[in-house]
Write a structure and sequence with these properties.
Two copies of one chain form a homodimer.
Chain A lengths: L3 E2 L9 H12 L16 H17 L6 E6 L2 H13 L3 E6 L2 H10 L4 E7 L21 E4 L1 E2 L4 E2 L10 E4 L16 E5 L10 E6 L16 H6 L9 H17 L1 H22 L3 E3 L10 E6 L7 H10 L2 E2 L10 E4 L6 H18 L1
Parallel strand pairs in A: 1-13, 3-4, 3-5, 5-8, 8-9
Antiparallel strand pairs in A: 2-10, 6-7, 9-10, 11-12, 12-14
């Protein structure tokens, strides 16, 4: 049976990217060697990483003065690299969930953290207004999309201080005005590739302003200077990322991704709002297009397991909600076809017919 | 033409590991989803990482009290994680090449570094005797195999202080008495897998003895506590590592790898010593089985480019020496078949016939 992949990450990737990757693992472009057995210093791999970088610049329309880096260690390593490189005395954080809190926690090792907005009062079910940004903080850190709670900020904030954004789970799902950010980072394993590579878009002139010594691998300047090749990069993950970005471009770029994201999310949210057995968990204005969270309506609470079982029998994968929210989460990343969104809706409708 | 892959890393991997990986990228064990599109929290991936860990424990006969970790960031990140976690005031380092020096450089950010042995006087062409280990240092750091210079220490030192070893380029090429080490680490991209994952074998009771705050991702205890799943691990690279280790086991384990390494290196070194056009660069007692460095004999210095061209025409890949040594380097990692070693020798002999 066809599987509909709603995993929260690692998650669905374009089929053509998988096929090209599998081919390259056996033989890269007919050179008689596998992608993963060639030197990262070879002209073949240099061409791959160069094209990957060029696709980032083009797809997000990244202005001059910025570099795109491909690092290991995941977004979680960025939680400490950001303050290591940017915090002199104080930073402002917006608290919108587990990942935002983890980012703030690491920053506390390097200076003062001021939480200037939070949605913890309602279990992170809305995106708080970000106002009164303190001008004496070294930077403002936000998490644009909250994978666990299903909230999203789709506005590029006007910040009087350098703006740092964790965009792990919504990068490339809409055009972004990169010029409004000092640094954007994220794990690749949602919209742009497999687990194992982290992207960083950094404005070069924000670097080199702190006094603390920074270990080479944690210093963004190391990777800027060496074009992400200071040490052996995660070659395979970068290759697949390139294939994913080629697909994004072929589909029409981030504007096309945004159009699909809007339509795909609407199909699912409309059904959640219509179907009497289900309730969305997030305030409508904050609803994420990437992670759609919902639970059984009060009256049908005892049907949760039954729905999970039924959905599974229909080929739905990964729709169990995170333990912090419960219920269900349909992650609808770039590569998820509309067909899968409709299959989930059909599933919800059939379940309602049988059970409501 | 068949390629003989002498790349220094990323490098040759067993063909069966490549084939199984390519299959899993398309469909993991017939589940209808790709290895790289499933959750790292799925039972399928948990089984993969568990088996990978079990293979490490079995193949290296790792004693109780140790954990094996799979991290991102490369061995270069370990250069700072080691002192972050282990250095109170002072550490001893053995200086045997570029990587050893880089490791010592990062340690200097955390305390005093005492270089207790070095082979810099002869451009790292021998492995220095390691004696007079200072008992007041917090640990001793060694690099067992020096990829660039082709030297190797195959003795498990008796150290009165915790012994830390970068085994990036010779792990799994011989049995190791793990009980003599406090910590062993390395990038996978030589004998155990593709680029993108770093292995760490750590004795648990050496952790938690420093006072400095450690960022979560740089704290070994984080990864010990969470079984390398604190954040999303490099799933693909771990999968391929498992396939490589299954192959090592099927071949007869590290003893079989050692036997092959000895025979394979002998075939090449014997030819270097016999052939009047070539000279080995390393003192015989320190010669690495993994990276075999040689240059043209003085009389034939002008033939270097010609030999590289000829070798290339015969299918040899990756034999150009590192710029710090010049000449040639034949890396002979676990997966390199004897057939390739013999093909290189045939190449050298034919070149001698035509040119000497």
């Amino acid at each position: 049976m066809k599987k509909h992949n709603f995993n929260a990450g690692p998650c669905i990737l374009p089929q053509v990217a998988l096929e090209n990757t599998a081919k390259a693992v056996l033989d890269l472009d007919g050179i008689g060697l596998s992608l993963i057995t060639i030197s990262h210093r070879s002209k073949e791999f240099q061409a791959i990483i160069d094209e990957t970088e060029a696709l980032w610049m083009e797809l997000l329309n990244i202005p001059a003065g910025y570099k795109v880096l491909f690092l290991g260690g995941g977004a979680s390593t960025q939680f400490c690299m950001v303050p290591y490189n940017l915090m002199k005395t104080k930073a402002a954080y917006v608290e919108t969930g587990v990942w935002a809190k983890k980012a703030a926690k690491e920053a506390k090792l390097f200076g003062k953290v001021e939480v200037i907005a939070s949605s913890v009062d309602k279990n992170f079910t809305y995106y708080p207004k970000v106002t009164n940004i303190p001008t004496d903080a070294d930077y403002l850190h936000i998490t644009t999309n909250n994978t666990i709670y299903g909230t999203e900020l789709r506005e590029d904030l006007n910040s009087p201080i350098p703006l740092v954004a964790d965009m792990s789970s919504d990068i490339m799902s809409r055009p972004v005005d990169v010029s409004k950010y000092a640094l954007i980072y994220g794990g690749a394993q949602k919209n742009v590739g497999p687990a194992g590579v982290t992207f960083v878009i950094v404005k070069e002139d924000i670097l080199g302003k702190v006094d603390r010594p920074i270990p080479s691998m944690l210093d963004y300047r190391t990777h800027v200077d060496k074009g992400s090749m200071y040490n052996t990069p995660p070659c395979f993950a970068i290759y697949t990322m390139r294939e994913v970005l080629k697909w994004v471009k072929a589909q029409g770029g981030v504007k096309a991704m945004e159009k699909l994201a809007i339509e795909r999310a609407k199909v699912i949210y409309d059904e959640i709002d219509r179907n009497k057995m289900f309730v969305g968990t997030v305030e409508p204005a904050s609803r994420s297009r990437m992670n759609i969270c919902f639970v059984m309506a009060e009256k049908y609470k005892d049907k949760e397991e039954a729905f999970l079982e039924f959905a599974k029998s229909q080929g739905m994968v990964g729709i169990k909600g995170h333990r912090d929210v419960g219920g269900f989460r349909a992650s609808a990343y770039n590569a998820l076809p509309m067909e899968s969104a409709k299959a989930l809706v059909a599933c919800m409708q059939e379940f309602e017919k049988k059970n409501a």
